[in-house]
Specification:
The chain has 82 residues and is mostly helical. The chain has helices at residues 2-13, 30-36, 50-58.
């Protein structure tokens, strides 16, 4: 029992060395902030980007933007599913 306690106290007393985390991005929330600039209720003709169409489909729940249910909203703007 004494050996186990000594071994455990040695583990707790040893310094933990952690490697620094790699920097991912200077602005990690930029896509989120951009998405917040979009408004719901616009038609495909009123939208200017695939990102805006994906926002309408995924965030607003506007299933009309994906008329054939293939996951690609506003096919004049998007060529792949969101």
């Amino acid at each position: 029992m004494r050996i186990a306690i000594l071994a455990l106290s040695g583990l707790l007393a040893s310094p933990l060395v952690a490697e620094p985390l790699p920097r991912v991005s200077e602005t990690p929330f930029a896509p989120f902030l951009t998405a917040q600039a979009f408004t719901c209720g616009r038609t495909c003709g009123q939208m200017r980007s695939c990102a805006e169409a994906c926002h309408a489909l995924l965030v607003c729940g506007d299933r009309a933007r994906d008329g054939d249910n293939d996951g690609i909203p506003c096919e004049s703007l998007c060529s792949a599913p969101c």
